[in-house]
Amino acid sequence: MSLPRIAVDAMGGDEGVRVMIDGAAEARRRHDQFQFLLVGDEARIKTALDQHPNMRGASEILHCDDVVGGDEIPTQALRRAKTTSMGLAVNAVKQGDAGAAVSAGNTGALMAMSKLALRTMPGIDRPALAAVMPTLEDDDVIMLDLGANTEADARNLVQFAIMGAAYSRIILGRQPRVRLLNIGTEEIKGFDRLRDAASELQAAAPGLDFRFDGYVESDKINRGEVDVVVTDGFSGNIALKAIEGTARFVTDLLRNAFTSSLRSKIGFLVSRPATELLKHHLDPNNHNGAVFLGLNGVVVKSHGSANAAGVANAVTVAAKLLEDNLTHRITSDLAELQARRADESAGESAAAK
Amino acid sequence: MSLPRIAVDAMGGDEGVRVMIDGAAEARRRHDQFQFLLVGDEARIKTALDQHPNMRGASEILHCDDVVGGDEIPTQALRRAKTTSMGLAVNAVKQGDAGAAVSAGNTGALMAMSKLALRTMPGIDRPALAAVMPTLEDDDVIMLDLGANTEADARNLVQFAIMGAAYSRIILGRQPRVRLLNIGTEEIKGFDRLRDAASELQAAAPGLDFRFDGYVESDKINRGEVDVVVTDGFSGNIALKAIEGTARFVTDLLRNAFTSSLRSKIGFLVSRPATELLKHHLDPNNHNGAVFLGLNGVVVKSHGSANAAGVANAVTVAAKLLEDNLTHRITSDLAELQARRADESAGESAAAK
C-alpha cells in the first residue's frame, strides 16, 4: 500500500520557501516513497525544486498568493483559511487530497484552522499540542499539552494521556510509561483535577496500551524515567520553554567559558568531538515537529526557525504517524476507556438493585 | 548598631548537624559580627562547634530532642511547633530572641510553622517562597512564588511583585525590573488574573520602587533581562524545577561526552578551568537560600542537600535581609499602593458627583 501524500505549507517559517522544499527533499532522500503536495507561490517553489531532482514526479504544486503572518491573531487568520498556503494545506487533508499537513507558520493560526477544517475526533473534547524532547537515555519523552488549552480539567487530562501514549507507542515501539506533571509526587500535592485524573488513569490503565506511573516533577522530565508527560497547556508551555531556555543558557555559559582563555580554547578544540556530540543531542532540529493530537487528521507544526534537517524530521514524523495510524490507536484506547466506564455504571446500578 | 542574631535549626537537612554548624561558622568567617542561636541536640552541636574556634562567644545553644521529619505532612509537624528544632528556631524570631531563622528541613512544615508563629504582614494576604537563580549577566534573578500557594489571584500576584521587588532591591542595590510569567508576551495570552495583575502593576509602578515590564516567557528567565519573575506557586515550582533539572541534564550530557573517548578526556583536562567556571556558575550552593516573604520576620530555607558553603550563603541572605530591613521596604511599597487605590476611589466618587 502506498503512503498518502503529505501537504507542505511552503510559505511558513522564518526562512521561507527554500528551507521547506529543501526539508521535503531531504525527507524524500531518507524515504523514497514520500509524495508531496507543495502549497504556496508556484514560481518560488519551482525555483527551490530545481535543486532537487529527487522531487521530480514526487510532488504537485498547489499555487496561492496569500500567506498567514507570523504575528497574526488566529481568529483573523481563520477568515483566510480558503486562500492562504496554511489553510489550503490543512484543507487538502480534509478533502483527502493529502494524508497529513506540515507547516512552520503561526502556531495559533495552524491550530485554529486545523480544528475548524478537521474537527475534533469522536470522544475527544479538546485537541492538544505534543512535542518530543531528548532524555539522558536513548528514548525520547513526549509532553502535552503545550499551549493549545490554557486550562485542562481531569477529563481533558485523561484524554491527553491516551493521545500522548498513542503517539509515544508509535515512536518507541513499546508500551509507554505515562505520568502527570505535578509539583510533588505525594498524593496530596497539586490540584483536585490532577488527583481526579490520576485516580481515573490508575483504574483504567490495566486495560489500556500504556502504564500509568503517577506524578512526575519537572526536574525529572529528561531523566529517561517517563515516556509521556501529561499537563495543561499553561504548565506544559512553562515547562517546555524553561527546558529549552536552560539548555541554551548552559550551552551559552559553556561557550563563554571555553572562549575565556587561550588554554580553554585549545581544550575546546581537542575535545570538539565531545562538544559536537552534546550539540547534536541538544539540537532542536533533531526533535523538530510538534503534533496536534485529537483531530480527524495529522497536522505537524515545524519550528519556525528549523533548518532543512529539522523540516525533514517534521515531515518524517507526519509520515510515521500516518503509516502507524495514530488516529486509529487513539480511537481504540478511547473505546476501551468508555467500555470500562459503561461496565462501572452497569455494576453500580446492579449493586444498587 | 549590632545585628540581631540568627536562629539556626541545626537538625534539618540531609547532612545533619555538622553541615549546618560548619555553614554558620563559614558565614561568620565572612562577617565576624554574626551571632547565632543554634537549636537542636546540644551534645552533637557542641561536638560540631569544637572544630570552629571562631564560633566561641558568638553562639548560644537551645537544646531540644525533637526533629521534624523530611516527609512529614505540615499539619502533623505543626502540632510539635513547641518541641522541635525547627519550631523553636522560628519561635525565637517571634519572641525577639533572634532576628531571623534558617532551616534546611521540610519546606512545607517550615512554611506552616512560620505562618502560624510570625503571622502574615499587614496588607499581605499570603506569604510566598522566593529563590534566586543565576543569569547570563552578572545579576541574579528572583522568582516567586515557588510553591507556598498552588493558586494565586491578581491581588496575590501584585503583592508577590511588591515583595519580590523589595528582596531584589536589597540584593541588586538598584531599582529592579519586574515581569509576570506567562506563555506569551502578547496582551491576550494567559489567564484573566494575569491581565488584571498586569494592568494594576502598570498603573501603580511609577509610584513604587520598581519598574514593571509586562510578561516574560520561561525561556527568558535567565537571559539577564528581568530581575523579578512573578507567578503562582504551581507554575513557579514547575519553572524552577525544569530549570534545575535541565541544568543538571546538560551537565550530565557534557560529562558523558567528555568521558566518551581518550581525546575528549584530554580536551577536558586542558579546558578544566573553563568547565570549573561553568560548574561554579551553576553550583546550587552559590544560590542557596529560598526566602519566605510576607511574614513578620525573616525565615530562610536552606536546600536540604546544601553543603557548608551553601548553608553559609543561606545565613548570609538572612543577615542581609535583616540589615536592609526587608519587611520595612515591603510595608512602604504596600502603603504607596494603598494610597494610590484610595486616591483612585476618591477620584471616582468625585467624578460621580
TrEMBL record, chains A, B:
Belongs to the PlsX family. Keywords: Acyltransferase, Cytoplasm, Lipid biosynthesis, Lipid metabolism, Phospholipid biosynthesis, Phospholipid metabolism, Transferase. The keyword Nucleus does not apply. The gene is plsX. The keyword Transferase applies. Pfam families: FA_synthesis (PF02504). GO terms for cellular component: cytoplasm. Its EC number is 2.3.1.274. Coiled coil: none annotated. This is Phosphate acyltransferase.
